Amino acid sequence: MACSPMSSLDTKPPSRIVDRRRYSPARPTGWAAGTSAQETAGRSHTAEGGSDLVPALGRHPDAARPEIVRPSRDVSERMSRHPRKDTAPEMELRRTLHSRGLRYRVHVPVPGMARRKIDIAFLGPKLAVFVDGCFWHGCPRHGMLPRNNREWWRLKLDGNQRRDRETTQHLMNHGWNVLRLWCHESTSDAADKVCDRLGVSQVR
After folding, report:
1. What is the pTM of this model?
2. What is the pLDDT of residues 46-74, one digit of tens each?
């Protein structure tokens, strides 16, 4: 619709034109501060008459979001080659537990949760043991973010930790005792922790 020019006798100032796709007066500045990556990734702010906006972590809402790009095919192939089970620390722990006379099951499906498995399961006492890798599970001592494509990795690793918490809580709700070990722990110390949970003597 064409707009007529403002008359010279019209004393009203021109109305302010706001691009609602880029600015929303109702949105508080810095609302994303203090939120975790997974919370921010799943939260959107809708401007009136505009589209969903998800500001980046720690940035002003009008600042440009960093580009989140999936890893290249070469990186994806290298990631897929990393073992997800039967890792060296897990195998060493299993051998040590077996040498102490303990019997267990490995890679037992988590009841009621598809595609999730317990690394080492003691079915009788219902003890679930997980041997978590420092990088993939966010070790507080050795965890780090790659320099390239940091935002994608932040979301990925935060999702892994959220998945771990969900699995642990689910097992506890079903009467399981859950023990999570880091792969950097010594094999003997890890085996001692398992024995403590089982209430058996620590025979070295």
Report:
1. 0.60
2. 333 333 333 334 445 555 555 555 555 56
CA distances from 24 to 46, 100, 132, 192 (A): 9, 64, 43, 57
HEC per residue, 131-194: EECCCCCCCCCCCCCCCCCHHHHHHHHHHHHHHHHHHHHHHHHCCCEEEEEECCCCHHHHHHHH
Q: What are the tokens at 46?
A: 């809708």
Q: How many domains does the chain have?
A: 1
CATH code of 182's domain: 3.40.960.10
Domain range enclosing 148 = 83-198
Cα angle for residues 158, 162, 165 (degrees, 5° grid): 140
Of 46, 32, 195, 185, give the one whose Cα is nearest residue 127. Answer: 195
